[in-house]
């Protein structure tokens, strides 16, 4: 391995350690109560090393948020990867998303803290990947002749906001598991307004 290769590995490992430490602290203590000194110490790095990668705490939080969102998106993709049937791909993906809403890291960072730390406009920009994933699933459904509604940015946005609100309901519930089950049934029923054939069942657990 070249010196450049080893250096790149070190840079990537350093960044990953900082993101892991920040994610854990933001989840447990919250953004306001977490200091950059704590993040650096938890990663066993200097504060200077942290500033080499992130300009400030908000920039660090934004990257943590993006990392969590990417992880959820990958979970959704993997959930639908085992089938070629568009409706099954959509329902399995949404089921995986609703399950992810039970994850404490996702609840605390993405649902509760992100709007206050970054503002709704920036949060929406960072949701573009997830919204694009939903749009692709809806278009795939239409191409297969399995959609009653014509795919459009409006349809994607409305359904995505519905799912975002469902995620908030799960995250804020006293019994998240029960809320997840109830939301799963509701989402299944609402998806029937889009489906153009014999819809499958969206699991609720």
Automatic annotation (TrEMBL):
InterPro entries on file: DNA-bd_HTH_TetR-type_CS, Homeodomain-like_sf, HTH-type_TetR-like_transc_reg, HTH_TetR, Rv0078-like_C
Residue ranges the UniProt entry marks as DNA-binding: 35-54
Keyword Transmembrane annotated: no
Domain of life from the UniProt record: Bacteria
Keywords: DNA-binding, Transcription, Transcription regulation
Residues in HTH tetR-type domain copies: 12-72
Transcription recorded as keyword: yes
Record-linked PANTHER family: HTH-TYPE TRANSCRIPTIONAL REGULATOR BETI, HTH-TYPE TRANSCRIPTIONAL REGULATOR RUTR
UniProt protein name: TetR/AcrR family transcriptional regulator
Taxonomic path: Bacteria, Bacillati, Actinomycetota, Actinomycetes, Kitasatosporales
